[in-house]
Design goal:
The complex is a heterotetramer, with two copies of chain A (about 325 residues) and two copies of chain B (about 375 residues). With about 325 residues, chain A is of the alpha/beta class. Chain A has twelve helices and 14 strands. Chain A has a seven-stranded mixed sheet, sandwiched between helices. The longest helix of chain A is centred in the first third of the chain and has 15 residues. Helices cover about 45% and strands about 10% of the residues of chain B. Chain B contains twelve helices and nine strands. Chain B has a six-stranded parallel sheet, sandwiched between helices. In chain B, strands 6-7 form a two-stranded antiparallel ribbon. In chain B, strand 6 and strand 7 form a beta hairpin. Classes of the chains: A alpha/beta (about 325), B alpha/beta (about 375). The interface between B and D is large, with 50 and 50 residues. Bound molecules: thiamine diphosphate (2 copies) and magnesium ion (2 copies). One magnesium ion binds next to strand 6 of chain D. One thiamine diphosphate sits at the interface of chains D and A.
């Protein structure tokens, strides 16, 4: 097994799926000879040519709208939106069409397509390049929202997303692109969409995170183990929608305490839904109110201040401790 | 150095008219159309017209919901869509009823749609048609994607996309035409310029004198035709479809026509346009013009026309009856949960079960109460 | 005082504000001679002329994007998006600019603008015309989201929104446009943005709703009073963001039980945030899990089936009863 | 009846070049520019060039973040923006540094911006400039809104909006130009066609031969100029600004120039374009060409040029020092909560207080620990 960054692992997933199925087509801005601004499509243009790795004009609605047509035709477009901060230009194509085609035609037509986009802060990027607004998509009926947390699961989930018969929003944390390496097997590996993962088992408190926030969540668990001798359970959602409610509820029934972590702004954010599901499924097991450690209700500040915006291990651990104070 | 005029190449913009409103025919330009195709077009136009009238009637009786009439635009969408093979793709907006039916949409499907049944957007099995698109201009991009895919698969399929004059103001129109030209995708863009977008006249929609000239922005041929002249529409569409099929890329066709009726049945056009203007366009009715032409050419007789009208009347009546019967079976609210995904996610299933329970309880109460 | 429909009341608010301040400019599709597809701008074109009531080309991004420019200039654009189902075409202009201009320029520039849009189901409209996706905006930092529930508060809130120095999303429930009349005074009336209203006082359970859902919430309270002799408190949010948390928490501390109602799909919907805030502020007072009675996680079905999608009084009352069963 | 060519009126598309790369001058077209304006333009171009080089240097030293260089495009944005009065509106994209500074943006502001300080998008008090816009093409619509407002207030103000070749593919470009033409708003659209949008060459961006011809779609005059020829840019911009001010509506100006450097400092252009192509454009440097012209016209001496270079060098150095000092005072994370709204909502205040508490505790710990 090779040690890979998430960028390399995603690249491998794309290459292998393209080899396997000539209906898999990549399209996006600068994904061709340039290999994508983050190099996720590196060398694929050379290997597969301009009919498989399609540079588009600078137009996001086109990328998504054309993909809808291609998917109806029977292809499997995997489109790259250069930064999730510019996916809004395509919002109407996603909401009005990608998410609805199967439903509108009662299953006659459907759109197997993946919309990949880098999201999140922490890499000193320009403005509009650091937001985390996956909640928009999770609230949109007809979409699946997948957010990997490392090279290996990113690769396996991207393969699953490409094979999924329905449109998948696939958000990739920029902060994870090159910051860690993992063993990723050359052999095929998939992960089921809609299933969360217990990243670390424990019984004192449940910490729920996804994407780039899994790492600080695990670090928080370390802190709690060290200082408080407390075994926190860390759940990595992997899929935000549909939510793996069963796993979450089971964990909180066991621990009685929960901390929900995300980079997205707090209000009307993904964490609220998790709280609501736990309220529904584990209310009588809760020992304390569920804590939310999230982005603030403001815009991610330009990069000199972005660190303070991002939830870190200390902030998460502090919240976990608060669930023990009545 | 110096200042010189730029003459954009690749994109000549012509105006085409073959059979005018007074019945004058430019025989030099008259397209060669096989008789059976003429009859197919006539039947489609006539059926479109009568069905449209029937839908309006039904709406007034409260037997369907909001409906956007197509009267007067039949030549624009039939004269173009007729060029498509069954294996080609047809991408409608919401004002191409005659063409939709010619392509294989059943009248029942339309009746279901305008009665608020999701079954009204099921396209026929194996059909290459997309369902109607309500978000203005959005379907243009799907057409480009389909055309890109057809080119990729080298099938020789052609795609035809329809939209109105108002649609040309949307970003999606621009992006779609630009991408189509970049990829030289086999797609024909048919703009039904009916001069109004609800209450907004063309002059407030764009400052350009024609919509056809917008093709120049994309280095694409554009043509403006008398959209009530089915021969002109046919000739322009044939040129465009042939070009697309031969690898010559996309074309923009502007069919100048008119929305004789209200925008939809919720609209009152008296608020914003004069009766004289409408009357003037009534004189240019595409159906009357075409019928005369066919009679003159002895492609049809008065007798046959009467028989055709009668046949169509019965077809429509039968469809309305079938649809109304069908609607009594349809409308199970639990269907709303189906087909959102290939596989129903757990929470959605919960919601379905909750509604099922609620309905069952209400049923029991109604029964016992 | 004249008995007015919500359409008439909104029309009055616009007319009075336009008279008062020549920087108030209306723009949108068909708002001129036609008076708007719902007639909210009826007769304003005749009264104020084409420079004050501006028909735009069919382009939502233009409506919002031009409004941003007009607002920076010093005008107060009130734009109408014909149906909220077509506001997504302008999503990028709202998220990237309207919501950020003040923040980006540290207060030097700001955009006092109102984006009005009809939302919600119940009037037998075509597809894309019945959705309720206010959560998108509530989750977007920099926006206020106001949703009136009747003619009188619609008028007062629209006046407040126009005078507000920041961008306001103003969603108008189509189902309320003509379905009821209320006395609306000719004299100026405003309501503070960010304040909810106790529509009916009670102590047994708190029912929280907004927009068109306030009526079934009140009807549910009637049912509970009749059948269970139970006094439900009904809170009408009026503003969804910023949320009047204080009032909500105070009510639930009193009742110990809550039902949150909205038309929007449930998952990652507005109700989740309300649950999360109550979890935070009133956890130790809760006698039972908070119930959510919401739209289902699907697309609003075409109108023959839409009634079953919409929360009604019975469904709300049943949820309230559930909060009493352990 | 018949088929005839449409000649769109209102919109002639010219190509303009006055001073070519070999120093040849079309004296018949040479614009009359007062000497002090020439000196202002020269200073702005030179300052822009040197500051750009300095920013690149700083980036390489890790003293600023990602930066998009402007080298080679100075004539395109200075030759146009110079036509604006202080009371006119300037709406930049992100590659008009020389013009931004000429308009009054301080170099400190740019340094703050590229160092990730929100203070870098504060526009000067009373200025008529918008801050840089990162979402491609989005600013075009703001320019149209400003122009609409200026027309409404009858102030005679003109608006000038900048964007790149890639921006012309976005829906916002289309919608903006269409609306501007419909309202005959006083706005000048300046496209810096630097031939590349990151790695995408113009030929993959659009199938039209020129970007100027896109004006025809809007019934608006368009002109293509040698964007490295400041005299041509000036002449075209003067015509457009005068027209806008006189109520003649919008114009599209395409400045054909070249992005000599990488897209941003994160980009490696070797991946997608040849060194020869770049070299060929280096020969067409707008600054060298303009300097020669001014020397030949005796509007400046070699001596003065050397002094100017020195003065600029010191200005830049002083700005860098001021900015780096300033940054030591800035960056209070609590600022992120301010100015989101005129009045801070309760929950945002809670978030601010939570962070303040956290910072205070961390401070105490750091102090005691
Ligand atoms: C994106 C979008 N905006 C607004 C609407 C509301 N609407 C429906 S049809 C229409 C006018 C369309 O005009 P045009 O494109 O000329 O087509 P026509 O109705 O004349 O056939 C409008 C504004 C919509 N359906 N989609
Ligand atoms: C809407 C949007 N999509 C994508 C991007 C990422 N991006 C930044 S600059 C750029 C290329 C811009 O090309 P062009 O308009 O020619 O301007 P240039 O960079 O050449 O000056 C891209 C794709 C963006 N900033 N905004
Ligand atoms: Mg029309
Ligand atoms: Mg460029």
């Amino acid at each position: 097994m090779a040690k890979m960054t998430m960028v390399e692992a995603l690249n491998m997933a794309l290459r292998q799926e393209m080899k396997r199925d000539d209906s898999v087509i990549l399209l996006g801005q600068d994904i061709g000879p340039d290999g994508g601004v983050f190099r996720v499509t590196d060398r694929l243009f050379a290997e597969f040519g301009e009919n498989r790795v399609v540079d588009t004009p600078l137009a996001e609605a086109s990328i998504v709208g054309m993909s809808v047509g291609m998917a109806v035709y029977g292809l499997k477009p995997v489109c790259e939106i250069q930064f999730s901060g510019f996916i809004y230009q395509a919002f109407h194509q996603i909401e009005n069409h990608a998410a609805r085609m199967r439903w509108r035609t009662r299953g006659r037509l459907h759109v197997p397509m993946v919309m990949r986009a880098p999201y999140g802060a922490g890499v000193r990027a320009l403005e509009h390049h650091s937001e985390s607004r996956e909640a928009y998509w999770a609230h949109t009926p007809g979409l699946k929202v997948v957010i990997p947390s490392g090279p290996r699961n990113a690769r396996a989930l991207l393969v699953s997303a490409i094979r999924d018969p329905d449109p998948v929003i696939f958000y990739e944390a920029k902060a994870l692109y090159r910051s860690l390496r993992e063993d990723v097997p050359e052999e095929e590996e998939t992960l089921p969409i809609g299933r969360a993962n217990i990243a670390r088992a424990g019984d004192a408190v449940t910490i729920i995170a996804y994407g780039a926030m899994v790492r600080p969540a695990l670090e928080a668990a370390d802190l709690l183990a060290e200082k408080e001798k407390m075994a926190a359970e860390v759940i990595d959602l992997l899929t935000l929608s549909p939510l793996d409610e069963e796993l979450l509820v089971a964990s909180v029934k066991k621990t009685g305490r929960a901390v929900v972590v995300h980079e997205a702004p707090q209000s009307f954010g993904p964490g609220a839904e998790i709280v609501a599901r736990l309220m529904e499924g584990a209310f009588y097991y809760l020992e304390a109110p569920i804590e939310r450690v999230t982005g603030f209700d403001t815009i991610v500040p330009y990069f000199s201040r972005e660190k303070s915006y991002l939830p870190g291990a200390e902030r998460i651990a502090a919240a976990a401790r608060r669930t023990f104070i009545k | 150095m110096g200042r010189k005029r730029i003459e954009p190449s690749n994109c000549t913009i012509d105006y085409l008219s073959i059979l005018d409103e007074y019945g004058n025919l430019d025989t030099g330009l008259e397209p060669e159309i096989p008789p059976e195709m003429h009859l197919k077009m006539l039947r489609a136009m006539l059926l479109g017209r009568r069905f449209d009238e029937r839908l309006l009637d039904l709406q007034r009786q409260g037997r369907i919901g909001t409906y956007p009439p197509t009267k007067g635009q039949e030549a624009a969408h039939i004269g173009s869509a007729i060029l498509l093979k069954d294996s080609d793709w047809f991408v409608p907006s919401f004002r191409e009823m005659a063409a939709e039916i010619m392509r294989g949409r059943t009248m029942e499907s339309a009746l279901l749609y305008f009665n608020g049944y999701n079954e009204g957007t099921i396209v026929p099995e194996g059909s290459k048609d997309l369902p109607m698109a309500v978000p203005v201009a959005s379907q243009i991009l799907h057409a480009v994607g389909l055309a890109w895919a057809a080119k990729y698969r080298q099938t020789g399929e052609v795609v035809m996309a329809f939209f109105g004059d108002g649609a040309t103001s949307e970003g999606d129109f621009h992006e779609g035409l630009n991408c189509a030209a970049v990829y030289q995708a086999p797609v024909v863009f048919v703009c039904q310029n009916n001069q109004w977008a609800i209450s907004v006249p063309l002059a407030r929609q764009t400052h350009s004198e024609t919509l056809a000239q917008k093709a120049i922005a994309y280095g694409m041929p554009g043509i403006q035709v008398d959209g009530n002249d089915i021969l002109a529409v046919y000739a322009a569409a044939k040129e465009a479809v042939d070009r697309a099929r031969d690898g010559g890329g996309p074309t923009l066709i502007e069919c100048v026509t008119y929305r004789i009726m209200m925008h939809t049945t919720s609209d009152d056009p008296k608020k914003y346009r004069s009766e004289e203007e409408v009357e003037c366009w009534r004189q240019r009715d595409p159906l009357i013009r075409y019928r005369k032409y066919l009679l003159q050419k002895n492609l049809i007789t008065e007798q046959q026309l009467i028989a055709l009208e009668e046949e169509i009347k019965q077809d429509i009546q039968a469809a309305v009856e079938r649809a109304e019967k069908r609607m009594q079976e349809l409308g199970n609210p639990l269907d709303q949960f189906d087909h959102l995904f290939a596989e129903m996610p757990p929470r959605l299933r919960k919601h379905k079960e909750a509604l099922a329970k609620e309905l069952a309880e209400a049923g029991r109460e109604a029964h016992h109460g």
